[in-house]
Amino acid sequence: MADHTEPPLSRIQQKNRELILKGALTVFSANGFRGATIDQIAEAAGLSKPNVLYYFASKDEIHRTLLTTLLDMWLAPMLRINPRGEPLAEVLAYVQAKLEMSRRFPRESRLFAHEILQGAPHLTEILGGGLREVVDGAAAILQGWMDEGRLAPVEPRHLIFSIWALTQHYADFDVQVRAVLGPSHDPLAEAGPFLDNLYRKMLSV
Fold first, then answer.
1. Which of 6, 34, 137, 189 is deepest in the core (most CB within 10 A)?
2. Looking at residue 77, what is its pLDDT?
3. How buried is 172 (Cβ within 10 angstroms: 0-12 exposed, 13-18 middle, 19+ buried)?
4. How many angstroms separate the CA atoms of 140 and 148, rounded?
């Protein structure tokens, strides 16, 4: 039987793919999916349009690759929740990890939020499959801790939703947050202790 496995990318090919995805992030974040073009992505990546199309067949494929890569990155902290760890410490570490992602990857967060607001046309299957499985796994760990009396009882999936909302807000609504707080404030630095205190009081037993 013939082996249809694609050969691994060379270092230059991997670099060019990364350049394209980095350029696409800039373009999609600024213009949205509909307003972005392959020409703009090529210019942002510092590559020719034919070179971009050598690696990705279409703008749609670039967008989908960027979003699925982003979703994997976004879910990584949840997968690190240790069922054998100290429950409150694990939850608070997850909150801080999500907040740090808003600090380091604000454009990525806004791109993902924009996709969701558009009805997630490029992520529908993933949201109903892989994402749900990861959330179900984390919710089962949380529910187990609550059943053991080690965390205060709340609905675990809504707890996760609240963490997403309260951490990603600082990336997705950065302009609004900074306008309200003023230039002398560091929103994410201030958010860290606030959220730690909020969830500590909510979940402590």
1. 137
2. 95
3. buried
4. 12
What confidence score (pLDDT) does residue 110 get?
85
Instruction: Kindly report, residue by residue over 56-84, the tens digit of the pLDDT.
Output: 999 999 998 888 888 888 889 999 999 99
Q: Tell which CATH classification among 3.40.50.2300, 3.30.750.24, 1.10.357.10, 3.40.440.10 matches the domain 59-203.
A: 1.10.357.10
CA distance 66 to 22: 9
- 54: CB partners within 8 A, 6+ apart: none
In sequence order, which residues have a C-beta less than 8 Å from that of residue 11 and are 6 or more positions away?
A: none
CB 71 within 8 A of CB 112: yes
Rounded CA gap, 7 and 197, in Å? 50
Q: Is 66 exposed, middle or buried (0-12, 13-18, 19+ CB in 10 A)?
A: buried
Cα three-residue angle 147-153-157, rounded to 5 degrees: 95
Summarize the confidence of residues 89-97 as an average pLDDT: 98
**So what's the pLDDT on residue 2?**
45
Is residue 33 within 8 A of residue 116, CB to CB? The reply is no
CATH for 1-57 (2.40.110.10, 1.10.10.60, 3.60.15.10, 3.40.640.10): 1.10.10.60
